[in-house]
Specification:
- The chain is of the alpha+beta class.
- The protein has one domain.
- 37% of the residues lie in helices and 16% in strands.
- The chain contains 4 helices and 2 strands; from the N terminus they run ββαααα.
- The chain has a two-stranded antiparallel sheet with strand order 1-2.
- Strand 1 and strand 2 form a beta hairpin.
Length: 75
């Protein structure tokens, strides 16, 4: 597996830039409508979320806290 495509993504919440290296064929499939979890099974979940929503892991944790570790987050 050769990751030959570098995708630059800017977080919409904090403005920080991230570079994610993926296979170009997988990127085409994702842009054509394939879900990120199927197009990029080799990426961790936080990077797939970055590909989907352009929200970095730190900002996503602030926007959507884990209800198990913070049970009052959604009350």
């Amino acid at each position: 597996m050769q990751r030959d495509h570098l995708e630059a993504i800017q977080c919409k919440a904090c403005g920080k830039w991230y570079a994610v290296r993926v296979q170009s064929a997988d990127m085409r499939r994702h842009r054509d409508g394939q879900f990120a979890q199927f197009a990029f099974p080799y990426l961790p979940a936080d990077l797939r979320e970055l590909m989907i929503s352009a929200t970095c892991p730190a900002c996503y944790a602030r926007l959507c806290p884990d209800p198990i570790t913070n049970p009052t987050a959604y009350n």
